[in-house]
Specification:
It is a single chain. This protein is an alpha/beta fold. It has a domain of 155 residues: 2-Layer Sandwich (Cholesterol Oxidase, domain 2). It has 11 helices and 17 strands. The strands form 4 sheets. The chain has a 6-stranded antiparallel beta sheet with strand order 4-11-12-13-10-16. Strands 5-2-1-9-17 form a 5-stranded parallel beta sheet, with helices on one face. A 3-stranded mixed beta sheet has the order 3-15-14. Strand 1, helix 1 and strand 2 form a beta-alpha-beta unit.
C-alpha cells in the first residue's frame, strides 16, 4: 500500500520523533482536538513481525542491533572522546523509538535530584512540580509496583497494578542483604502484572530486551495509535533535515521521504522529541544567519553536558540453583545508597539474569554429547549478579557535535560523540562495586566478573544536551521546556535534564512530556 508522506495543509503542532515523549504529547493534543503531525525518521514496524523479531534476537547469527534494523549509513556516528561511546548499541529509529527494545524500568527521580543535593546544578523545577505528572505517566504506561520503598519520594496514589512477586534469586539475595543491613524493595515495571488497559499480563517469554512479543510491556506505539485514532497524522520514514526559522519562531520542518523528495511541514508550534543525540544534532544542522552556531543555541550549550548513567556489576557462582534466567526483568532493587552525603547516587539492582547463555557455551565448545551436557550443568543455572546505575557527573566537555567528515544517507554530518568518564565517576562506580561484592561474598559466591570502575560503560540513557534553566545564558530551555530563543519550540526529552540522577529516565521523560502537553494546550488556546 502506498503511503502518503506529503505535508498536511494545516497543523497546529508538528512533533519530531515518535518515541514515548512524542507519542504522549501527540495523543494529549490530538485528543484535545488539535491538528497534530508527527514526523518519524524510522519505519513503522509491523506488529505481526514481533514473534519473528523475538526469534531473531535469540539466534547468535544476528547482531543485537539488527533486530530493530539499526545500522548502516542512516545510523552512522563518530565517537571521539577519551572513552568510546557505543551509540547504536540499544537505540531504535522507528515508530515507538527505544521503548520497542527497552527493559521497562520506570522509577521517579528523588527530591534531592532536583534541588542539587545529589550533585550537579539544581533544576529550575522541583519534585512537587512533576509529582502529579509522574502519577499520570504511571497510569498512561501501566506500571506494576508497590509502595514499599522506604527511600523513595512521596507518592500521591497507589501504582496502577500490583507488583511482580519476588523471584527465586531475589529470595537468595534477601538472605545476604538482611545480614548486611541492606534494605530491598520491589522494582516498578512498565509491564502488566495483570490485565490492564486492554493488554494481557506478562506471560514470561523472557525476551523483554530487545523484544516483547505480546505487548505486556509498554511501548510508545500504543499512544501513537491512540493519537491517530484521535486524528493525529504520523508520517514514518520522514527524517527531518533542518528547521526553517526566523529570529523568534520555527516556520517549518523540512523532511525527506524515501524517494528522495524534500517536503516542508509548517505548524504553529513545534515539539522536538527525537532524543538526547538527534535533537541537538538537528538544532546544529539548522544553523542560519540568525543562529550561526546552531538553532536555539545563543547560550552555546546545545549538545553540551551529554550525560549518562554508568554501569556497575559484580557476578559469580554459588553452590545451589539460582534460576536467574527464569525472569528476564528486575523485580527487586535498593535505593538505600541513593541519597548519600558521601557519594553521588547509586541504585542497586538484583538481577534476574546472569552468566553466559547455554547456547553461547555450546557454540564455542570443542566437545559434544554427554560431555557438553556435563559442562552446561556445571556452568549454567548457578550464577548470581548484582548490578546498578551510577550518576555520571554533568560536564560541558561531554557533548554532541557534528562530524562533517562523515555523512549520513542524506549527506548530513553525523553526530560526533565526545564522551569521557571523570575520576569522580570512577570513584562512585568503585563504591557501587564494593557494595555489590559484599552481597555476593555474604553468599559465599565465587566472584568471577566485575564491571567497573575501569570497565564501566554507559546505560544508553542520553541526557543533558539541551539542559533546562531559568537563565538563557546557561541553559537551552526554560522551566516549561520551551526554548529561550524561539517562542514556538519545545523540547520533550531527557536532553533537558540538568543532572542525571541514577534512575532510569523514561518515566521522567513521560512526566515532562505530559506537562508539555498541558502547557501547549494553554498556549494554543490563547493564539
Amino acid at each position: 500500500m502506498e503511503v502518503d508522506r506529503t505535508p498536511s495543509d494545516r497543523a497546529d503542532v508538528c512533533i519530531v520523533g515518535a518515541g514515548p515523549a512524542g507519542a504522549l504529547v501527540a495523543h494529549r493534543l490530538a485528543a484535545a482536538g488539535y491538528d497534530v503531525v508527527v514526523l518519524e525518521a524510522g519505519p513503522r514496524f509491523d506488529r505481526e513481525r514481533r514473534i519473528g523479531r523475538m526469534e531473531q534476537s535469540l539466534r547468535p547469527a544476528h547482531a543485537p542491533q539488527s533486530v530493530w534494523d539499526v545500522g548502516g549509513q542512516r545510523d552512522a556516528y563518530t565517537s571521539s572522546g577519551a572513552d568510546h561511546y557505543p551509540l547504536n548499541r540499544t537505540r531504535v529509529k522507528g515508530v515507538g523509538g527505544t521503548t520497542l527494545a527497552w527493559q521497562g524500568m520506570v522509577v521517579r527521580l528523588h527530591e534531592r535530584d532536583f534541588d542539587g543535593r545529589n550533585g550537579g546544578d539544581p533544576w529550575p523545577i522541583d519534585y512537587a512540580d512533576l509529582q502529579p505528572y509522574y502519577a499520570q505517566a504511571e497510569r498512561a504506561m501501566g506500571v506494576a509496583g508497590a509502595d514499599d520503598n522506604p527511600f523513595g519520594p512521596p507518592r500521591e496514589e497507589p501504582f496502577p497494578m500490583a507488583p511482580f512477586p519476588p523471584s527465586h534469586s531475589d529470595a537468595i539475595f534477601a538472605e545476604a542483604c538482611e545480614s548486611l543491613g541492606i534494605a530491598t524493595h520491589s522494582a516498578p515495571n512498565a509491564r502488566n502484572s495483570e490485565e490492564y488497559d486492554g493488554r494481557g499480563a506478562c506471560v514470561g517469554f523472557g525476551t523483554c530486551k530487545p523484544v516483547c512479543p505480546t505487548r505486556a510491556k509498554y511501548d510508545a506505539p500504543m499512544h501513537v495509535e491512540r493519537a491517530e485514532a484521535s486524528g493525529a497524522r504520523v508520517i514514518d520514514r520522514a527524517p527531518v533535515q533542518r528547521l526553517e526559522h526566523d529570529a523568534d519562531r520555527i516556520q517549518a520542518a523540512v523532511y525527506a521521504t524515501p524517494d528522495g523528495t524534500e517536503h516542508r511541514q509548517a505548524a504553529r508550534q513545534f515539539v522536538l522529541a527525537a532524543g538526547g543525540v538527534e535533537i541537538p544534532r538537528l538544532l546544529l544542522l539548522s544553523k542560519s544567519d540568525h543562529y550561526p552556531e546552531g538553532l536555539a543555541n545563543s547560550s552555546g550549550l546545545v549538545g553540551r553536558y551529554f550525560t549518562e548513567h554508568l554501569g556497575a556489576r559484580v557476578g559469580g557462582t554459588v553452590d545451589r540453583p539460582t534460576r536467574q534466567h527464569h525472569v528476564e526483568f528486575i523485580t527487586t532493587e535498593s535505593h538505600q545508597f541513593y541519597d548519600s552525603d558521601d557519594h553521588p547516587p547509586i541504585k542497586l539492582e538484583l538481577l534476574n539474569y546472569a552468566g553466559r547463555p547455554p547456547a553461547a557455551t555450546a557454540l564455542e565448545a570443542d566437545h559434544w554429547g554427554d560431555d557438553l551436557l556435563a559442562t552446561l550443568r556445571e556452568t549454567y543455572g548457578n550464577t548470581l549478579e548484582v548490578a546498578g546505575l551510577v550518576q555520571q557527573e554533568a560536564r560541558p566537555d561531554n557533548r554532541i557535535t557534528l562530524d562533517p567528515a562523515r555523512t549520513d544517507d542524506h549527506g548530513n554530518p553525523v553526530p560526533e560523540v565526545h564522551w569521557s568518564i571523570s575520576d569522580r565517576d570512577r570513584r562512585t562506580v568503585e563504591r557501587a562495586t564494593e557494595i555489590q561484592r559484599s552481597i555476593l561474598e555474604e553468599l559465599d559466591a565465587d566472584i568471577e566478573w566485575v564491571v567497573g570502575p575501569d570497565s564501566t560503560g554507559p546505560a544508553a540513557h542520553h541526557m543533558g544536551t539541551t539542559r533546562m534553566g531559568d537563565n538563557p545564558a546557561t541553559s537551552v530551555v526554560d522551566s516549561q521546556c520551551r526554548t529561550h530563543d524561539l517562542d514556538n519550540a519545545w523540547i520533550a526529552s531527557s536532553s533537558v535534564f540538568v543532572s542525571a540522577g541514577a534512575m532510569n529516565p523514561t518515566l521522567t521523560i513521560a512526566a515532562l512530556a505530559l506537562r508539555i502537553g498541558d502547557r501547549l494546550e494553554e498556549t494554543l488556546s490563547q493564539t
